[in-house]
Every structure is written in C-alpha cells, then in structure tokens.
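User: what does the whole thing look like in 3D?
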Amino acid sequence: MNQMPQDPMDDLLEPDPELDSQLSTLQQFSPIVGFEDRVMARVSIPQPAALEPRRAPGRFQRLVRRPAWALAGSLATGSSLATALVLRWITNSGFGRTQVWAWLNQVQGPVNTWVESAMSQATAYASQQTAAAWTKLGLWAVGAGAGMWILPAACAWGLYRVMEQHGMKGTTAYARR
Amino acid sequence: MASQGIAGASDQDVIKWALEGHEPAYRELIRRYQRPIFSLIYRMVRDRELAEDLAQETFIKALNALDTYRPEFKFSSWLFKIANNAAIDHLRKKELHTLSLEGAPDAPAGDREGQPLQIADRTETPHDEFEAKELGSAIERAIGALRPEYRQCILLRHVEGRPYEEISEITGLPLGTVKTFIHRARAQLKEALEPLRE
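Assistant: Here's the predicted 3D structure for the full assembly of 375 residues, as structure tokens:
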C-alpha cells in the first residue's frame, strides 16, 4: 500500500528520504471485529425480482412509461389510421377530383349554417356570463367596501380589549415594543 | 460469477454482481475497503470509536446508493470521497461547536472574551491508552498536528498511495492546490520531526 506510483510531482517536492521512510512506516488500522456485519445489518440489498424492470429498459419501454407520451402517441396513431381509412374509402369509391369537390360544395352549405349558428349562440352565452360576472363583482365590491369600514373599528376594539386586560398599565411601553 | 472467484474479480464486476442482489458481493466490497477507509477516517478524527461510526456510515451510505455509482469513475475514489466528506464534515462541526463554547463572535464584549472551556480532569482509560499507542509515534503525532486539509492530502498520498489527480477528485480541490498542500504538509512534517533527527 505504501508503494507509490512514480509521479512527475515527486521531482518537484523536496526530496527527504528520512521523511519518506517515516511515512512508509504508517500502516493501515483495522476496525473492530464485526464491522462487516454491522454495516450489512443496515444495507438494503435489492431483490433480483425487483430489479427486473429496472435493468436497462429499452427506449420504447421508457417512452411508454410516461403517460403523456403514451397518450400523445395513441392520438397520433389513431388520427393517422383514421386519415388513411378515409383516403382509402375515397380512392376505392371511384370518386374523381371533380366529384370530391362537388360533394364538398354540397356539404359546405349546411356546414356553414351550422357553424354560424353555433358561433352566434356561443357569443350570446359568453356575453350573458360576462354580464353576470360583472354584476356579482359589483355586489362583492359593495360588501368589501362595507368591510373596510368595519375592519379598523374591529382592530381598535381588539387593541382596547388587550390594553384593558393589562389594566391599562404600561400602555406606552406595550406600544413601543 | 462464482463465489470462489469473487475475491479476484474487479471492483466493477463485484458491483455489478451486488446490484443483481447478491449479498456476498456487498461483503466483498466491505472486506476490500474497510481497512483503508477506517485508517483514513481514524487518522483524520483521531478517535477510534468515532472513526468506527463514521466508517460505518460511509459504507452504509455508499452501499445503499450503489445504483447511483457511475462505473466510469474508480469505485475506490467514490468511496474515499464519501469517507473524506464524512471526516471533514465532522471536523468542521466540531470546530463550530468549540467556537460556540468559547463565545460567539457577536456576543457582548464581556461574554466574547469567553471562559476557557473547563474540561474535567480525566484519567487515561485503557481505551485512551490504546489510542495513544496507535497514534503515539512521532510521525503520527506530527500528522495529527497538521491542518485537516493538509492531513487528508498527505494521508491519501503517502498511506493510500493515490495519484495527485485522484486526490484532487476525492477532496474536490484543484490539482495545483493538492500539490501545494502536500508540499506544505511535507515541510511541516519535516520541521516537526527535526528535533528527533540526529
């Protein structure tokens, strides 16, 4: 243990054979018998079964373990499949480009009507909700305003009670604290 | 890995085996490093019982966190680092405790002067006598008188035979600082041992 590897720094250190010889007499000490058992009593050894899933999981496995990634992957796969099925149906039904455009134009009218109707209903609902919220806020503001008057009065009453309990003695000292 | 071959296996193989849940591998790691780790801590704190406790804590901490050990580093360096931190932390806490007993720096002037810590006259117990013998040689006493930072470097270098780069890694000190500390420690040891030279 005391045999040291050669190191260029040794040349820079002041050589002192006597000191080196004394340092080389330093030996290792042993702990008291039973050290190993005392340590082992407080070490938790992993069970091989518990280690199985931890042992080098593949990239795919690690990815799948994250729920958000799994959900996103499922959605992406699902939408791709749906698109592929629709395209396949369109191709197989013998539609040409002109037929597809004609069909889309035919569908466009009712869809536009439905979208417009939904938009106007949503706008009306949002305005109604906003107006209701403002009304509630106004009521709360009135309440809070009243509370603002009550609060100092309550504080003053509390302070008076505390001072009363102390027999009004040393009031100035109490206030100075 | 057959249990009869474990003694000759590399640290990395033993660790791999330990991580697979084999108790003999854990025991082998303790057997390999209990003496160097204990010796380092003992010479740092100079109290056998305390050194036992700190060495035990070092192994418990390391072995329970074995799965966080990165194989690209030497296991011995990792273990020495934990042991060294334990010893240095203890010495720092002890230093703080001594300071607080001697009077806090922001205490009123009367208190700051502080009363010297009164230690009851203690007769040397067999335990103390044993320690005095173990660490009683001139070189051991001279090492004990070094600053903890110098002591850790000189012990790692001259008792454990670690290269400078590894000492730097273990202590967290820059390489140049390690070299300076060893140089100064050697100079102080030389000075301390001068009267004994013929």
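In plain terms: The two ends of chain A are 67 Å apart (CA to CA). The longest helix of chain A spans residues 97-165.
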